[in-house]
Design goal:
Elements (H helix, E strand, L loop, with lengths): L5 E5 L5 H11 L4 E5 L3 H8 L6 E3 L3 H7 L2 E4 L4 H9 L15 E4 L5 H7 L2 H28 L4 H10 L5 H5 L22 H18 L6 H13 L11 H7 L1
Parallel strand pairs: 1-2, 1-4, 2-3, 4-5
Organism: Mycena chlorophos
InterPro entries: 6-PGluconate_DH-like_C_sf (IPR008927), 6PGD_dom2 (IPR013328), 6PGDH_NADP-bd (IPR006115), HIBADH-like_NADP-bd (IPR029154), NAD(P)-bd_dom_sf (IPR036291)
Protein name: 3-hydroxyisobutyrate dehydrogenase
Length: 247
């Protein structure tokens, strides 16, 4: 199914900006309607394709003019504002029949369940990914201290039952994946404080529905301690490997 000719985007923050850029570049025939509370971000984004990017006055205008609308904002209260604010929210737009709204925000499960089940899948995935990253970091550290070369160790994991995406594409040990953020001073990638946030939201959601988690609290604690260290904050979440080593 091809995207429509009119696309909308609300929220151009740390995650929203690169995602919106991808959507813009992959759909050269589409007009792009954007909105963010930061006018500077809007102006900067519009410069990337001034003939196709249109700055909207609010979320209502985005929903009015676009057929598919993507939203990605920091917290549940922001999602409610984007969708429900009287006069400026998405649901204040007329003629919404046939339009598609996709919220990519990582927020509390209660707010998300009011707009659908997408976040339930996202939190479950990020919980799994976060735990795998810590396990990979621990296993790499253990094997290296036992004398195994990190690249050989990673290759061994990849051929065995411990194979996973983190090890293969974003191994936490610098130099194992030369093109990854982990080999570039942990610059770029998914910030450790965002991983801490997602892990907290996932464990909270699990408690609310009575799902037992054995690894959850330990993982939250590991990311929280890593994110609180000024040497690691703002870096890719796989920097937890360095926190483990220094610890």
């Amino acid at each position: 199914m091809l995207p429509p000719r009119r696309l909308g985007w609300v929220g151009l923050g740390a995650m929203g900006w690169p995602m919106a850029q991808q959507l813009l570049s992959k759909n050269p025939a589409s007009t792009f309607y954007i909105f963010d509370v930061d006018r500077t971000l809007l102006d900067k984004f519009a410069q990337s394709a001034p003939d196709r990017v249109k700055i909207a006055a609010n979320a209502t205008e985005v929903a009015t003019k676009a057929d598919w609308v993507f939203t990605i904002v920091p917290e549940g209260r922001h999602v409610r504002q984007v969708y429900l604010a009287e006069g400026t929210g998405i649901l204040a737009a007329e003629n919404l029949a046939g339009k598609t709204f996709i919220d990519c925000s990582t927020i509390d499960i209660e707010t998300s369940l009011d707009v659908g089940l997408g976040l339930a899948a996202k939190l479950s995935n990020n919980y799994l990914s976060g735990c795998i990253a810590i396990a990979t970091a621990e296993a790499m550290g253990m094997g290296m201290k036992l004398g195994i070369d990190p690249k050989i160790l990673s290759a061994t994991f990849d051929k065995g039952t411990g194979a996973n995406w983190v090890n293969r594409s974003m191994n936490p040990v610098p130099g194992v994946c030369p093109e990854a953020a982990t080999s570039n001073g942990y610059v770029g990638g998914f910030k450790v404080e965002l991983m801490e946030k997602d892990m907290r939201l996932a464990t909270q959601a699990a408690r609310q529905v009575g799902a037992k988690l054995v690894l959850g609290e330990a993982a939250v604690s590991a990311y929280a301690q890593t994110a609180s260290d000024p040497d690691f904050r703002g870096k890719d979440s796989r920097v937890v490997y360095q926190w483990l080593n220094e610890a």
